[in-house]
Specification:
With about 325 residues, the chain is an alpha/beta fold. Helix content is about 55%, strand content about 10%. It has two domains: about 180 residues, Rossmann fold, CATH 3.40.50.720; about 110 residues, no CATH class. The protein has a nine-stranded mixed beta sheet, sandwiched between helices. Helix 1 runs parallel beside helix 6 and helix 8 packs antiparallel against helix 9. It binds 1,4-dihydronicotinamide adenine dinucleotide (NAI).
Length: about 325
């Protein structure tokens, strides 16, 4: 179901102090939206340039532990990777029964990366939008997609508070979507671990076949994506739908695309099996979360080596060559 302004009452935040922890991408937008909705907002931030920005915007800005202690409702808007330590050391100690912790992504809560004291409600209000759009859409009252859920309802009113926060940040103007930390985290991870890797492999296979035919790197790569055309197509897909936008393409293109769909159904059978395994065996089982947490426990960053390896294939190398020759066109 979806929840609109009429379903959400700001009164659940009456007399409450809301602490926005982190004044970054989401934090600066959500703090300002809540304040403009008439809610009492303080900011908790470590001493860095984000704290300066928060002070400049007129927010009372405190160390994280002090803000968490002082507030009744705490929005956790710092990067996911640092949340477990910061919650354990600076936020959880300041939370008491009847307080509410609001997360903007489901991963850490769902996979048990941090804990909060008993009696504290935990809710999710997760915009599907970058912070700048969270702010600009609030100002123009158009709303934006946002997942909401009550993850731990000790008070009996956790979901009401989640909806009040969603309304305060402007999300219910367009309709907030009922979800869960499990669903939000799994969808996010699935897109990252199945959809994009599948797309990358389709591009790689296409590059190999087209190179075998003797076509040039420049021509292939501009056609495939360097021109930015796929980004425009995806933009139309989001606005008009997969098949509706197809009508904007030439008749030859439509005939070819529609004819190709049943032909490639064969690979989608195999892909379905792999995707099921990614979802069930890696993501929902918690295996990926364990693997990622192990990878992060060492001193060395694992990503540079993985990126080097992925970037050493024929397609990434061709892309580097083309890019270095054609800077001005990109
Ligand atoms: P961000 O990267 O913009 O966060 C910066 C803030 O975190 C600053 O206030 C900084 O002082 C603080 N910070 C950074 N490292 C810290 C540390 N070690 N200790 C204490 N504070 C630290 O974060 P962003 O992107 O706004 O994400 C916040 C939450 O919102 C995350 O849970 C994320 O998954 C979620 N989210 C983000 C979206 C986005 O568009 N970026 C969209 C929807 C949800």
């Amino acid at each position: 179901p979806m929840y609109f302004d009429d379903d959400a009452s700001l009164s659940h935040l009456d007399g409450k102090t809301v602490a926005v922890i982190g004044y970054g991408n989401q934090g600066h937008a959500q703090a300002q939206n809540l304040r403009d909705s008439g809610i009492e907002v303080i900011v908790g931030n470590r001493d860095d340039e984000y704290a300066d920005a928060s002070r400049e915007a007129g927010f009372e800005t405190l160390p994280i532990a002090d803000a968490a202690k002082q507030a009744d409702v705490v929005l956790l808007l710092i990067p996911d990777e640092v949340q477990p330590d910061v919650v354990r050391e600076q936020i959880a100690p300041g939370l008491a029964a009847d307080d509410v912790l609001v997360v903007a992504s489901g991963y850490n809560w769902h996979f048990g990366e941090f804990a909060v004291p008993e009696g504290v409600d935990v809710v999710m209000v997760a915009p599907r939008m970058i912070g700048a759009a969270v702010r600009s859409r609030f100002e123009s009252r158009v709303g934006y997609p946002c997942f909401v859920s009550a993850e731990r309802d000790a008070s009996g009113s956790a979901f009401d508070v989640a909806l009040a926060v969603a309304r305060g940040i402007g999300a219910t103007a367009g309709g907030a979507i009922a979800s869960s930390a499990r669903e939000e985290a799994a969808l996010d991870l699935f897109t990252e671990q199945a959809i994009w890797p599948a797309i990358f492999n389709v591009l790689r296979a296409s590059y190999d076949v087209l190179t075998e035919a003797g076509f040039s790197d420049e021509a292939i790569l501009y056609e495939m994506y360097l021109s930015g055309e796929p980004a425009e197509v995806f933009d139309r897909v989001a606005r008009d739908g997969v098949f509706e936008q197809m009508k904007l393409h030439s008749r030859t293109s439509q005939f070819g695309q529609l004819g190709g769909i049943p032909r490639f159904a064969e690979i989608s059978g195999e892909a379905t099996e792999l995707m099921r395994s990614v979802l069930n065996d890696d993501i929902l089982s918690g295996e990926f979360a364990k693997k990622w947490s192990r990878a992060n426990s060492g001193d060395a960053d694992v990503l540079p080596d993985m990126l080097d390896e992925a970037g050493s294939g024929d397609l990434p190398k061709a892309e580097q060559r083309v890019r270095s020759r054609a800077r001005d066109m990109l």
